[in-house]
Every structure is written in structure tokens, then in C-alpha cells.
């Protein structure tokens, strides 16, 4: 499941609840044949799971190895199945897939033709006569995948069951699917997480956020497989709290570059088909009321939709139901969707090609799609500006950014975007550099040119946008994600239809990071609050060090922070953590060891909770406070004295100021500065203006560097990661020894930092944070107690927060009753909540 974050005011949350249930029309399939009432008939040629594994699928959770074993057994017994391995995890586990269809569609020659035909239909310039021939013969490509979150397993068992049913059934339901489609199946996208019972993979990555960055082998291998057999339908099966079920229509917002055909299929084909099947089985379900949007372009529904033109959908089963019921519901939704897609093969395949034709036409007209809302009672609150975008430029004349530019361009090329290189300088009279006013500029020869007039127009805008133009301020995840801004590239766009002298850029190579000699000895202080929720910030950091920068490091727990261990380190990195708990675990011995090590020449580098820890221990004199505004994963520009401007991902992080302004390394510009720019949604952002994003101060012979944000957010914030890289490799202080930690000269500044850090209400890993007005705190408490939970109260200016802590063994999924909190508070006589957040 995605982690829900209700970050706006009451009217947003309440509207989702007040809209009520969406009515669904009856399924369009013939009454004589449907996935619920048709009695399955079996040939008896394919062994059952009980015969192979010793138990029925869904009776209990199968392991990843058992899922793979059974899929292979079905393949061996049936000529309707071809299975294989598309990737290997970092721990060596195989990721299996299967293609299921009629034998004639699965021969090597037939699969090669399918791949070629699909690639041709994705070309807008394909002659209409050729397109019609391909559309007449090509089966629909329908993908059903599961278990991207390892602790949401039931979908994997359902996928294997569907492989068996399609391979052995002979009735009209199976025949319709097999006659009209090639079905792709992935039972587990995260076998390491399945084995560990963690949401994340072995690298502590939430892979349902990794789709455009492709940092993980599981994600990259899957996208390569989808490029070979691109989907017209892609289903990603998850688990959620409660015992209900979610399938689309989605909650607002939907990203504006989502094609109309995809939304139509999602809502009016698959949403309707699932509603009919669940009604027939008398299964409860939710649609847009559940809060699952189609906005951030990094999900297993949004990327297949925008990059591949598919109907990408997230399905969520309530894990409060028994495991057999969870599996049955996923099976029901999977079969209903495959049956609906296969039954409309001709319309879907032709519509898929036409969507690419329309995308190129929009690009030729330099037009962006308008924002739309789909839920009852909503109106567009931030329209897409009336502006022309004909194409993007990425400059190549700054050697320091060459590698980051190559990373972005490679990702674009992997997605099928055609990138050109200017053969000679080009004068652009309306060039809009990112976050700047339009002005005439000359693009040097060698600059990359990405015109919008091509098949992947929607994806180009999604990845290179200057702003996401949020239509409706409710978020499941981040609100800004431009790859160009995340990588701090030099570039921008033009509203003029240009045909510059250029050549198609061949596939780029990403060079290795150049490391200086004499690398510091690096340690990572990490703490995990729950065995089921490993520290993602630490995971992102370890991936960056191990796989991108290739800098060796040693991981320490709080109990290992001793003089002897620290004596072998030059730099200690402290990613986001539970600062208050870690402070307790360090004890007096650990606190003194850190202070002595820093005073003796060590370099402490921390961010978010790691910065709060440094301030609370007096290592840093930076003053941190809770933000008053809201920015749910928003890109802000910052100034760096030595390196110009950069971009950071701000996710309602602490607001930070320096005791000595000379120690500020990166800061937010003044509101009146031309450097001030925000990409994504924000409310009350003015509190950041002029504050610090990074501070580095000398302490004794050592150094303490703190970031208010995570500079390595999800390991795709390549631009701000340079700030971390610089901090890791070099001290920013002077050679002259400075006042020691805990010295009289620093005591006043340390005290201010400690008091401010202690007063912070920032929660780490809470199950629920409910923010209400002070007058409504009593009523809110009564509502929470009615659900049998305990909470602690944090009071701030004009609000009270009721925090329900996760506890060490709490699951990652929020309880289903959280969605009804606005209505329950209203019934208790309280005003709508200021915010509801499940981190």
C-alpha cells in the first residue's frame, strides 16, 4: 500500500469522505459468460498447487520460492505458459514472470512479432494502413503483478492461481482471455521483502517510489521486461488496512498529462468490471473514497499509464480480512480485469495506438493537457497555465554536471524518448530557464534538445516539468518530482516550434564517479524503530555510497558509539532517525564519545532526525523548529555560496537557522529574490525564506554539518546529493581550532540548540498524527479512544497534535478507520481537522 499523507486543510479531507460511494454500472460482458457466474471447467493437465506445494494457494502465505516453484510447474505442464527470470535481487533471489496465452502466441517467433508490433503501434508516424493490419492481429498485452511491498503478500498467491486457471481451464472465461490477450504475470516484485516481511526490499527502498529513477535491480529489470512487452493494462496488487478492497476510480488529483483514453479505461472499463464482480460476490469495496490518487509519477500505476499509455491501476486488499479472503479478492479483481480487457481487445489496441498519435499532435501544437478533477464536489484549484511548451533543452557545457545530465538522459532514452544533440549554436528568443523568467539565450552546440512532438510527449512533460500544477491539494506522496530539478541540471524550455539542426543522440553511458585519493573512513549511525520498517533514509544512503559513489562505509548501532569504534572513523553520517530514542540509547557514554570524537577532529554529518540529534546533544548550535506551513515533498531552490543554486526536496522538514550566519552552506532565498522558486504544492512557504538548508560549523578540531532536509531523498535527488558528497569528503571549517563542544564559549548557543530540539514535535514512524484546533482536542481524544488506541498530545501554536505511535511491531499499513476521522470528528461536534497524516 502507499503511505497516506493528508496534508491539507479540512475541506480537502472532508470532501473525500462527503462524496459518498461511487455507483457502478453492470458489467458489459454477456450474461452467459462472466468471471463470477460461469462455472470453471478444467482439463486436468496442469497440477494443482496442493499437488506441487502440499497446500492450496491462499490457504496460507506461500513463500517466494514456493511461488516460483509452482509457476515453473505450471509452465512445464502447459503449452499456454512461458516463464522466465527478469532480474535478480541484491541478495541473489530470482524474480520470476510468466506469459500466458494460446500456444500460437507464445512461440519465439510469435513473441518476437508481438514485441515488434507493439513497438510499431507506439510510433505515431506509423501509416494508418499498417496500423490497421497490426491492430487486427495483435493480442492485447495485459499485465498482472503483485507484492512490490513485501509485507503485502496475498496478491502473489492470487497471481499464481490465475496462472493455473488460465493454463488448465477450458470454459468461456479462460478462452476469451487466452484468445485475445497475452497475459503477463509477476507474482512477487519484491521477493527479499516477502522473505523479510518488510515493505521495502533488502536495500530498504520502497520500490513503489522507484519507477522513474530505476535505482533498484528489481525495478530496472521489470521496466526492461515491460519495454519488450508493453502493457495496455498494468495492475499492481497491494495490501491496506481494514478488510475492504480498493480499485479505481482514483481519488483526485490525477496528473494533468494522463491521457484521456487511459482514464476512460481505468474508470469506465476496469472500474465498472470490478464493481460488477465484487457486487456479484457481495464483497465490500471502495473507490475514490480511499484516497489513492494517480498523481506522483513514480508509482506502479502512474508510470505504466504515462510512460506506456496503459490503464495502470493499484488494487488494495484489506489485510484485516483472513488470508484466504484476501487472496480470493485479488483473484476476483484480477480475473475481472483480464476478462474485461480481453473482451475489448480491438478497441483497446487501436485506442492505445491512437493515444500516441494524439500525444504527438499535442506536442506539435506545443500544448499541455489541462488539469481535471474526477471526484464529485471537486473543482480545479490550480489550472495548468495557458502556456506553450514545444520542447526542453538540457545544456552540456558545465563539466561538473555532465554525469547527472547523462543519468537523466539515459532514463529518458530507456523510456523511449528521442533525444537530439544540437549540431550548432541555436538562438532561442523565449528561453525559460528552470524557475526563471523567459529571456533570449543561445544554446551552445552539443546541447540536448528534447522536442515534445513525439510519442512520449506525456512522459517528457512528467519528467522535465518545471512544476506539476497540482489540480487539487490532496496528496498520497510528493507533489514535485521533476528529474531536471532533482538533478540540478542547467536547462529549460521554449514555447516556439523549432526545427534546429541536430542529430539523434545515441544511447548515453553514465561515467563512474571520480573519487579523490585519501577517502575518509566513513561510518553510518542507523536506528530502526521496527523490524518491519527498516530506515529508508539509511537505506538510500547505503545505496548511494555502495552503488553510486562506491565509498566504503561501516554501519553502527547506538550501542556501538564508543571511543574505540569511533577512533577508526573520520566521518560519521547520521541519516533521518528517531532523535529522542537514539539519544536515550546512546546514554552518557555515547554522548561523551561523540563529543570527544568531534572535538578531536571527527566530522559529524546529519540530516532531519540526524540534525535534531546533533542539536539535542549540543554538537551543533543550529536551531531547529517545527514548520508551521505544509509542503508535501516539494522542490525548493537553495543558494550555495560556492556552487551557485541547487534544488532540495522539502517534505515538511524542520526550519533551521544558524547561530553564526557565516556557517550557512546552503540557504533558501528571500521571498523577493529572483532565485526564489517552488515546484509543487506549498502552503505557508514564506517561513523558509532566508533560513538554512545546510549548516557546517567547526567544533574543536572537528566539524559538524547538518541538513534540515534529506539531501539524498530516495537516492534520486542527485543534485542535492552533491552537497552531501562535498560534506562527506571535506571539512568546511578553518584550519584554526575552534571552541570545543561543551566549552564555555559555546554554552549559550548549545543551550539554544538543545532547547529547540527538545521542543520539536516532529514524529518518527508514527501510525497517526491528527492535528486539530485546541478547542477540539478533547473531542478528538474521545474519537481516538473509541477506536481503542492510545495517543500522546503535542501542543503547538494554534494547534494540538494527537500522536499514535507505531510501536516496535506495528504493521506499515494504516487502519481503515482513519479515513472516517473527519466524519467522526464532525459527529462529535468538532471542527474539521487541520491535518491527518500517516507517515
UniProtKB/TrEMBL annotation:
The keyword Signal is annotated on this UniProt entry:
yes
- Annotated PROSITE patterns: PEPTIDASE_M14 (PS52035), PROKAR_LIPOPROTEIN (PS51257)
- Residue span(s) of domain Peptidase M14: 60-320
Which InterPro entries is this protein grouped with?
Class_I_gatase-like, Peptidase_M14
Pfam families assigned to the protein according to its UniProt record, in alphabetical order: Peptidase_M14
Q: Which UniProt keywords apply?
A: Signal
Query: Mind telling me what this protein is named?
Result: Peptidase M14 domain-containing protein
Amino acid at each position: 500500500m502507499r503511505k497516506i499523507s493528508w496534508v491539507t486543510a479540512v475541506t480537502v479531507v472532508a470532501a473525500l469522505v462527503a462524496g459518498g460511494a461511487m455507483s457502478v454500472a453492470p458489467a458489459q460482458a454477456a450474461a452467459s459468460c462472466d468471471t463470477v457466474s460461469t462455472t470453471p471447467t478444467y482439463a486436468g493437465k496442469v497440477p494443482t498447487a496442493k499437488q506441487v506445494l502440499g497446500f492450496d494457494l491462499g490457504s496460507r502465505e506461500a513463500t517466494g520460492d514456493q511461488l516460483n516453484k509452482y509457476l515453473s510447474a505450471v509452465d512445464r505442464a502447459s503449452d499456454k505458459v512461458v516463464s522466465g527470470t527478469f532480474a535478480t535481487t541484491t541478495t541473489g533471489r530470482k524474480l520470476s514472470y510468466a506469459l500466458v496465452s494460446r500456444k500460437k502466441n507464445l512461440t519465439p517467433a510469435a513473441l518476437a512479432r508481438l514485441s515488434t508490433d507493439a513497438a510499431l503501434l507506439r510510433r505515431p508516424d506509423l501509416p494508418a494502413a499498417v496500423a490497421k493490419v497490426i491492430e487486427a492481429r495483435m493480442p492485447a498485452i495485459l499485465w498482472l503483478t503483485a507484492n512490490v511491498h513485501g509485507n503485502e503478500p496475498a496478491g502473489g498467491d492470487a497471481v499464481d492461481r490465475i496462472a493455473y486457471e488460465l493454463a488448465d481451464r477450458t470454459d468461456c472465461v479462460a478462452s476469451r482471455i487466452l484468445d485475445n490477450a497475452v497475459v503477463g504475470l509477476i507474482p512477487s516484485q519484491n521477493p527479499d521483502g516477502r522473505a523479510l516481511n518488510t515493505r521495502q526490499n533488502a536495500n530498504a527502498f520502497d520500490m513503489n517510489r522507484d519507477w522513474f529513477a530505476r535505482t533498484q535491480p528489481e525495478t530496472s529489470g521489470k521496466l526492461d521486461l515491460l519495454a519488450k512487452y508493453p502493457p495496455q493494462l498494468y495492475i499492481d496488487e497491494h495490501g491496506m488496512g481494514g478488510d475492504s478492497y480498493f480499485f479505481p476510480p482514483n481519488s483526485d488529483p490525477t496528473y494533468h498529462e494522463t491521457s484521456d483514453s487511459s482514464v476512460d479505461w481505468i474508470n469506465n472499463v476496469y472500474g465498472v468490471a470490478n464493481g460488477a464482480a465484487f457486487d456479484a460476490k457481495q464483497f465490500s469495496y471502495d473507490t475514490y473514497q480511499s484516497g489513492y490518487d494517480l498523481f506522483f509519477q513514480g508509482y506502479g500505476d502512474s508510470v505504466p499509464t504515462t510512460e506506456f499509455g496503459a490503464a495502470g491501476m493499484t488494487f488494495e486488499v484489506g489485510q484485516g480480512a483472513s488470508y484466504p479472503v484476501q487472496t480470493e479478492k485479488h483473484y476476483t479483481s484480477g480475473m475481472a480485469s483480464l476478462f474485461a480487457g480481453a473482451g475489448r481487445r480491438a478497441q483497446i489496441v487501436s485506442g492505445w495506438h491512437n493515444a500516441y498519435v494524439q500525444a504527438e499532435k499535442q506536442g506539435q501544437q506545443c500544448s499541455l493537457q489541462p488539469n481535471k478533477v474526477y471526484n464529485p464536489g471537486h473543482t480545479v484549484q490550480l489550472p495548468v497555465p495557458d502556456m506553450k511548451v514545444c520542447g526542453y533543452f538540457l545544456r552540456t557545457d558545465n563539466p561538473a554536471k555532465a554525469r547527472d545530465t547523462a543519468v537523466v538522459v539515459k532514463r529518458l532514452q530507456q523510456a523511449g524518448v528521442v533525444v537530439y544533440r544540437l549540431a550548432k549554436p541555436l538562438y532561442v528568443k523565449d528561453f525559460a530557464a528552470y524557475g526563471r523568467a523567459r529571456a533570449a539565450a543561445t544554446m551552445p552546440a552539443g546541447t540536448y534538445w528534447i522536442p515534445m512532438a513525439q510519442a512520449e510527449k506525456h512522459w517528457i512533460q512528467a519528467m522535465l516539468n518545471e512544476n506539476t500544477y497540482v489540480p487539487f491539494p490532496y496528496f498520497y506522496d510528493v507533489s514535485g518530482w521533476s528529474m531536471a530539478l532533482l538533478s540540478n541540471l542547467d536547462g529549460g524550455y521554449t514555447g516556439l516550434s523549432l526545427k534546429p539542426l541536430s542529430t539523434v543522440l545515441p544511447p548515453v553511458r553514465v561515467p563512474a564517479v571520480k573519487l579523490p585519493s585519501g577517502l575518509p573512513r566513513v561510518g553510518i549511525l542507523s536506528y530502526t524503530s521496527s523490524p518491519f520498517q527498516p530506515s529508508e533514509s539509511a537505506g538510500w544512503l547505503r545505496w548511494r555510497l555502495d552503488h553510486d559513489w562506491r565509498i566504503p562505509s561501516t554501519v553502527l548501532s547506538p550501542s556501538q558509539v564508543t571511543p574505540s569504534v569511533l577512533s577508526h572513523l573520520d566521518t560519521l553520517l547520521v541519516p533521518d532517525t528517531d532523535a529522542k530514542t537514539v539519544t536515550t540509547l546512546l546514554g552518557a557514554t555515547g554522548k561523551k564519545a561523540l563529543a570527544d570524537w568531534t572535538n578531536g577532529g571527527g566530522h559529524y554529518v546529519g540530516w532531519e532526525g540526524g540534525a535534531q540529534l546533533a542539536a539535542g546533544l549540543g554538537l551543533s548550535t543550529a536551531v531547529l523548529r517545527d514548520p508551521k506551513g505544509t509542503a508535501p515533498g516539494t522542490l525548493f531552490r537553495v543558494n550555495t555560496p560556492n556552487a551557485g543554486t541547487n534544488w532540495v526536496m522539502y517534505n515538511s522538514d524542520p526550519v533551521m537557522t544558524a547561530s553564526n550566519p557565516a556557517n550557512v552552506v546552503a540557504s533558501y532565498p528571500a521571498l523577493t529574490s529572483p532565485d526564489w522558486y517552488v515546484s509543487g504544492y506549498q502552503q505557508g512557504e514564506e517561513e523558509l525564506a532566508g533560513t538554512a538548508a545546510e549548516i557546517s560549523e567547526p567544533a574543536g578540531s572537528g566539524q559538524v554539518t547538518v541538513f534540515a532536509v534529506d539531501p539524498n531523498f530516495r537516492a534520486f535527488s542527485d543534485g542535492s546529493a552533491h552537497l552531501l558528497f562535498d560534506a562527506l569528503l571535506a571539512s568546511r571549517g578553518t584550519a584554526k581550532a575552534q571552541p570545543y563542544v561543551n566549552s564555555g564559549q559555546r554554552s549559550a548557543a548549545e543551550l539554544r540548540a538543545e532547547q529547540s530540539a527538545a521542543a520539536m514535535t516532529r514524529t518518527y514512524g508514527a501510525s497517526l498524527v491528527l492535528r486539530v484546533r485546541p478547542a477540539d482536542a478533547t473531542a478528538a481524544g474521545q474519537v481516538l479512544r473509541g477506536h481503542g488506541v492510545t495517543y500522546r498530545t503535542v501542543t503547538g501554536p494554534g494547534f494540538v497534535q494527537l500522536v499514535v505511535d507505531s510501536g516496535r511491531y506495528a504493521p506499515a499499513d494504516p487502519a481503515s478507520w482513519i479515513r472516517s476521522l473527519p466524519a467522526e470528528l464532525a459527529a462529535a461536534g468538532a471542527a474539521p481537522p487541520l491535518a491527518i497524516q500517516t507517515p
